[in-house]
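Q: My labmate handed me this sequence with no annotations at all. I'd like to see what the chain might look like in three dimensions before we decide whether it's worth expressing. Could you predict it?
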Amino acid sequence: MEQTKMNYKKYFFIALAIILLDQSSKMLVHNFMYIHQEVNVVGDWFRLHYLLNPGMAFGIRWDSEFGKLALTIFRIFAMFGISYYLVKMVQKPAHNGFLICLALILGGAVGNVIDSTFYGVFLNNAPMEAPTKWFHGQVIDMLYFPLFHFRWPDWVPLRGGSYFEFFSPVFNIADSSIFIGVVTILSSQKTFFKEELPTEETTEIEEASEISVSKTDTEEVPPSQEINTPRTSGE
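A: Here is what I predict for the chain of 235 residues:
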């Protein structure tokens, strides 16, 4: 039992580290940058770009006001659901890599839940049309990787003359943590969920053992015979 508790702590510490790193980066951006300010970190392809995202991850927006509230509530339920699932998988126990991925997803989910739930009140960044500041906080995004960009030639169907940039979404550490966790799980299913099948040698030994036991059970033991000792003439 004590060992199981230590395992819980290890994975929840990973989630806590993601939360602290995510929230620290958001507070630094909030306090030292202004909206839409952009700072080059590594050349032109890695920048900090301060954005407020009222919607989902990677800059995706949800225009419906009911949708924003539904998204925040869904995130809260998902946070508790992932926590419960992580505990069950530790008890199982599941593959260590899978548990680490769940911890990354949990940390990212909690990081964005904090934004959506509290930032509207404590950072006063809820949209003007929000009916309440609670549960309507905007997520702070800042990581921007415009790796390359170009303009499509005019002769390209549908896209001709338009501007293309890769990678255009602006996101945060919580989004990155969720993305890494999910992609790793999807790409490592054979490693995380493989079933140990018996080898041919083990199978042959088990079959031979079953046959031996079966024969022993069905053999009839001959009844003991009385041994007649010849009498001597003097008797």
